[in-house]
Structure formats: C-alpha cells, structure tokens
Amino acid sequence: MRYGYFDEQNKEYVIDRPDTPAPWANYLGSPEYGAIISNNAGGYSFEKSGANGRILRYIFNSFDQPGRYVYLRDDDTKDYWSASWQPVGKSLDVYKSECHHGTAYTKMYAEYSDIKSEVMYYVPLNKTHEVWKVRVTNNSDKPRNLSAIGYCEFTNDCNYEQDQVNLQYTLFITRTYFMDNNKILQVINENVEKAEINGSKANKRFFALAGSDVASYCGDKEEFLGRYHGYGNPIGVINGDLGNKLNYNSNACGGLQTKFTLAPGESKDFAFIVGMKDNDAANAVIAGYADPAAACQKELDELIEYWHSKLNNFQVHTPSDSFNNMVNTWNAYQCFMTFIWSRAASFSYCGLRNGYGYRDTVQDIQGVIHLAPEMALEKIRFMLSAQVDNGGGLPLVKFTHNAGHEDTPDDPSYVQETGHPAYRADDALWLFPTVYKYIAESGNLDFIDEVIPFANKDEGTVYEHLKRAIDFSMNRLGDNGMPAGLWADWNDCLRLGKRGESTFVAMQLYYAMTVIKYFAEMKDDAEYIDYINSIQYKMGETIQEKCWEDDRFIRGYKEGGQVIGSKNDPEASMWLNPQSWAVISGLATRKQSEIALESVHRELNTEYGVRLMFPPYREHAFDGALMLLFNAGTKENAGIFSQPQGWIILAEALMGHGNRAFEYFNESSPASMNDKAEIRKLEPYCHGQFTESVGSPFEGRAHVHWLTGTASTCMVGCVEGIMGMRPDFGGIKIAPSVPSDWKEFEIEKMFRGKKLSIKVQNPDGHESGFQSLTLNGEKLEANYIPADKLADTNDIVLVM
Ligand code: IFM
C-alpha cells in the first residue's frame, strides 16, 4: 500500500493519504531550536536539549499526540476540522489533504467543506522560534464566517521527565498570561526571577498570533480540551470561543482563536509563532511577521536555498527513481540530520543522552563529506579533540565537552557521569576512514599537520592523533595478537570480555594501518612506514590464521578462547560484518572475498536486507551475548540491522559486483518499500535502525526512524560504492559498480570547487570496469582524474 510519493523536483516527500501506518516525521530547525513534526502535526520542540529544554509536550509511545494543531471552524454551521487530518480526523471521503515534507519545512494542505488551508511549519534559518504560517482560502461561492484556532501544549517544566512524571511538583510551578492582545505567555518558576534559588532561573515561553486579531484565548489545557474531551473534539473549538481562561496550578497550553470572513475566492494569511522567550523578546520576533505572507515566504526561500545548495553538490540521474530519490535528497538529508542531531531527539529518542557517541558521530561525518566538506571538518576537529592522549576515544563526548580538561574512562568521575565504564575497542579506529575521506574529498592535505588538543591533556597534530589511535589498539592486544575486545566493538551487544578479540576490530585496525601509511608516505616518514608495514603484515597473518574458516570469517574470540561465529556453532554461526569488512579493509584475498560474500548472500540475505547474523541466539548464547535479550529476528539478534547494509553494499561494489550491490541497496532502501508501506511502517524516505527479520511475525517492519548510523553507511555505499566516486589525495577515481542493465546514467558532482558533469555509458551491460575516459574531450589513460587537470567546469565521459 502506498501513502505518498517522492517529488524529486521540489525535494519533497508528499503524503497524500494521511492515515499512515506510523507517524511519518520531519526535522525542523537545529538543536539550538529543534522541532520534530509528523504528517499529522504531532511532535515537539525544544531549545538546545530535547531532555532539558523541552518547550512543547509530546507523549512518547502513544498515538502521535499532542501536536501543533490548527483547528478550522465554520462559525455559521459550527462544523470544525483540523488543518492536518488529525486530530479531528474527518472522514477521508470528504476531507482531502497532502502533507509535503521538505528540507527543514513541512507544509500541510487540506480541503474540506470548500475551505482550503495551507499551514507551513518551519524554524527560520539561525533563529530560535518556530512559525506555523497559515493561509485559508474560501473556495465556495458564498461568503464564509470562519475561525482558526491554534493550539500548542507547553510542558510544565523544561525537563521532559519532570514534566511527565513529577506531577506533585511541576503542576505547581507554571502559569500563563495573555499579553499585548497577541500571545499567551507561559512562565515557569515565576518567583525565582525575584529571589533566585539554587541558581535556577524563571523560564518563559510564548505562543503568539501575527497578522490577525485574537478573538479569544486559553492558557489552560483542561479548559481548552474540556474534561472527557480530547484533541479531536476540544470544547473550546466546539463552542467557537476559548473562554479566555489561564492556568494556575494546572497544565498550561497556548490556545488562540482568530475570526474572519472570506468572500468567495478570498484568502487570509496569518502566523502562529512559538518560542522560549520573554515578552519583550517575543514581541520583537512577532514584529517581523506584520506581513506574514511576505515574511514567511522570504524565510522559506532562505531555508530552501540553504539546504538545496548543499544537496545539489552531488546529484545523480540513473534509471532507478528510488536510487535517485535517496541519493539526491532523502538519504543525503538524513545524513545532515544525523550529523547535526546525533541521537538527540526523535519519536524514539527523547533527548536524555547528554552527549555524542564517539563511534556514531565519527561515522555520521562520512555521510556529509561529499556534500559539505567544510561542515565535516569542523566536526572532525571536535571529535579529534575528544580523543584521549592514550589514543582511545571517549565513548561519550559530553555536550559540554571541554577539550584538554576532560576526565576519561580511567577516572571514576567520568564513569559516574556518563555511565560508560570502559573504553570501547573500535571508537578511535573510525577516525581513519573519516579523516581519509575528508582529506581526499577536500584536498586539504595540510589538515594532517593541524594541531588539536587531546580530550584530557596535551595536544598533537592530526597525524599524531592517528598514530596514537594505532598505539591504543596495539597496546591492548589479546591472546591471539588481535585488538582486545575491551567493553565492546561496533556491536553494543557483543561483550567478548576485556581480553576477548573481535575480528571486526582487527580488520578495522588493519585498514587503519593502510590509511596511516598513506599519510606517512605523504610525510616521508620512512621509519614509521617500516613499523606499520611490519605490524600490518603480522596482523594480516594473524587474522588469516585465526579467523578464516572455510567460507567465512569468524566473529572473534571470547576471553578464554571460545570461538564466536564458527560455522559449526548451533546459533550465530554466520556474521555479516567480518565478511563485509574483510573486503573493505583490504585484508581478504580476492578468492576469500568472493567466497565470504557468497556465504553472506546464501545464509544472511532476505527480501528486506541482510541479517546481522544467523541463526539468532535462543538457547546457546555465550555469557556476554547481550542480544539474547531481544526477540529472535530483532535488532542485534539476527535482525536486519540497517547500518551494516551500507557496508555490504560498499563491499560488493568494491568487488565490482554491481548487480549484487544494487540488490542490497534495493532490499534495504526505504524508497523501495514506498508501495509496501503497510509492511515497513516506517517513513519510506528515511532509514531506520533495523528491520524485523525471519522469525518475527512482522518480517519487514522497520523501527527507530531518522537518527541512525545507517544514513552515513548507506550514503557511502551508494556514492563511493555504486557510483564509484573514489577521491584520493591527488584526484578522483571514477569506478561505478552498477546493475548491468543500466545502459547510461549521469552524475553531477562538485569536487574541490570544480564542477564535474559525468556521463557514464555502459553499452555492453557491464557491472563495473572501464574502457575509456575522456575529460573535456581529452582521453585519459585510466579512470582516474588528477585534480590539477580539472577546469572550473568539466565534461567527463566514462565508457564501462
Ligand atoms: O554501533 C552501535 C551504535 O553505536 C549504537 N546503536 C547500535 C549499534 C550496533 O550495536
């Protein structure tokens, strides 16, 4: 079943059936002022922290309520509806709607009873308030007397948990005022303004109307809704009068009614505005919307220009619409959202995590490098400054990170504050692909010599940071000579024990050694090259000897020597990541790669993607296999974990297996499930954390939308893998790995400030490889373009 479609031209996803199987969300603003909104206007807002700066309330794990509601009312017939289908939920036979999720804005169009409404929700660029711009049009042939009523539900406390559960306190600290005939002002801890206590401050929020007069107002949730009523039939809306009540020792809300008469064909524009500001600051904001239509259009244009100019830095035109939609807009936009929001706030994450996960964040950066290398650079610097001087990464980098002065997992204070008891084996190793990809994309070779502080003390060049990351692993080897498991590797559920050994991490280390050698060569550091050559050779031999088993790489060794992921194990005998990373790391021979990838396809592949391992743990889990806690076919317990889909796509593409790479793309791409939304349930335009697999009665259902490392791995799998964009220090290799029936396709890419227009022709139906390449009419020797040969604009033709 299909609920919407991709509008590639406008970079929007259009939901034309509002009864979606789950709330389908979009992100507005930034963590400075963040807002999440569903296709039925459910969602919440916050300043700086989803957990501690919560402004608008949302009830998690419920039915997508409350939200940013605009009710419309025919004041003659007393009939009422909402500008988003829910919460009133008129019959879809008579109520028509479209929700357009765009890049940092969402527009709701509805038509009911010959009244057309359009609400545009957005947070203006670099501003800390949100706007709900409304246009109502009378499409009937007679004048209509109408009301529009805006409703938002304030939290009673900035802390989301306090608001939800500590009612004996939070109900008694909030009150509302009606101010200046244009707004409800909510004040929390009002007296603190006059007599400070415990350093706390009074907090103020507002809900205002601009461009129309307030006819009635309400600042008390229960008065607005009415006891035994709900969001779908609020008494204030039914009555057409909000009663002018304010809250005191009860739940606050913002409710504002405006009344107007529209002649046939006439429209009216006005805007509701929400923010965390006092009355003066709110009035300054409201003053900017005296002409809401013009002011809001200008702000929307700025937003679109900002986001589209970034996305346009890489665009593809291939025979696959779902590939184009994901790569050009939605996977790319999701990469920016994960890059900016980390795992802060969604309909699954409530914002309680008080920092950045090291591995997650370093990987998220990879998703935007090809689109905005300057943004990536800033975050790379930040993450390097969260590397401890022993070379390991801080498992959690606090939002208040103070480079050079942080405690580490060696300090009880860090453990107590973050809940992370130890270093993880993989964190700092993610720096290698990320730093390499950034330098190769940008050509900023000097970055390797930039001096950056360590998290706890001292400083060093980027080169030194990377060397210490190698040292971190080499100083902590297990009994077989591979990196010790420490607290965990990428798989949070895999506790191999402090001296256990993960094949995945060993492969990451092997890859890291290859990368640091490039830098060492650049710096003529011969002694270090010799050192790396010798340890890499040894590591490679060890992995080959200890981890290769006939047709697969095992998952690792538990402390004490038990093999995990042997083909003879009754459960979890086949694991995905050691196979894909055997290829990505360059460790596996060509023959091993072919065999291991074939084993993946045979034993792990399903119609919805590749399982993380199989069979699931049920009765034979080792002590430390925490995934046993999950139902079979779910998450790390043989679910289709989404993030590794990007790695297997990349691995197949690196092998030149275009058909297989695309098969995996298709299986796991949200867009491919657009017409099967009743199975996937999650938004068809964004990746989730995992998909339920064989063994679940809901095979194919996806979970945990938006904020997932999948965004970046799938992006890399598509851009570097399938499209074959492989920059290095000196230029760019173009090596597509595509379905053999793609006869031609085009890529437009900005590379180091130059425009590349690449036409790929594949007349003989290959999956990879090249016959010829011309750059601005000149035939080159290989499918590699040295950066210094590029003009400002470049026509490139590659024949496969
Ligand atoms: O790698 C982790 C990630 O850091 C958090 N989510 C789960 C992944 C796999 O366990």
Describe the structure.
The structure is a single chain. This protein is α+β, with helices and mostly antiparallel strands. The strands form twelve sheets. It has a ten-stranded antiparallel β-sheet, with helices on one face. The structure holds 5-hydroxymethyl-3,4-dihydroxypiperidine. Residues 11-292 form the Glycosyl hydrolase 94 supersandwich domain. Keywords: Glycosyltransferase, Transferase. InterPro entries: 6-hairpin_glycosidase_sf, 6hp_glycosidase-like_sf, Gal_mutarotase_sf_dom, GH65_N, GH94_catalytic, GH94_Enzymes, GH94N_ChBP, Glyco_hydrolase_94_b-supersand.
Quick summary of this structure?
By secondary structure, the protein is of the alpha+beta class. Helix content is 28%, strand content 26%. α8 runs parallel beside α20, α15 (577-584) packs antiparallel against α16 (590-604) and α17 (643-654) runs antiparallel to α18 (658-668).
Distance between the termini: 37 Å
Q: What structural class do the secondary elements suggest? A: alpha+beta
Bound molecules: 5-hydroxymethyl-3,4-dihydroxypiperidine
DSSP strand tally: 44
Describe how the helices and strands are arranged.
Layout: E1 4-7, E2 12-15, E3 25-30, E4 33-38, E5 43-46, E6 54-56, E7 69-74, E8 80-82, E9 96-101, E10 105-112, E11 115-122, E12 129-138, E13 144-152, H1 160-165, H2 167-170, E14 174-179, E15 183-188, E16 203-210, E17 216-220, H3 221-225, H4 235-239, E18 252-262, E19 267-275, H5 279-287, H6 292-311, E20 314-317, H7 321-341, E21 355-357, H8 358-366, H9 373-384, E22 396-398, H10 412-418, H11 431-442, E23 451-453, E24 459-461, H12 462-474, E25 501-502, H13 503-522, H14 526-547, E26 548-549, E27 552-553, E28 556-557, E29 563-564, E30 574-575, H15 577-584, H16 590-604, E31 605-606, E32 609-610, E33 613-614, E34 640-641, H17 643-654, H18 658-668, H19 677-680, E35 688-691, E36 702-705, H20 710-722, E37 725-727, E38 731-734, E39 744-751, E40 754-761, E41 772-775, E42 778-780, E43 784-786, E44 793-799
Parallel strand pairs: 40-44
Antiparallel strand pairs: 1-2, 2-9, 3-4, 4-5, 5-6, 7-8, 7-13, 9-10, 10-11, 11-12, 12-19, 13-18, 14-15, 15-16, 16-19, 17-18, 20-39, 21-22, 23-24, 25-28, 26-27, 28-29, 30-33, 31-32, 34-35, 35-36, 37-38, 38-43, 39-40, 41-42, 41-44
Helix pairs in contact: 7-20, 8-9, 8-11, 8-20, 9-11, 12-13, 13-14, 13-15, 15-16, 15-17, 17-18, 17-20, 18-20
5-hydroxymethyl-3,4-dihydroxypiperidine (IFM) binds next to α8.
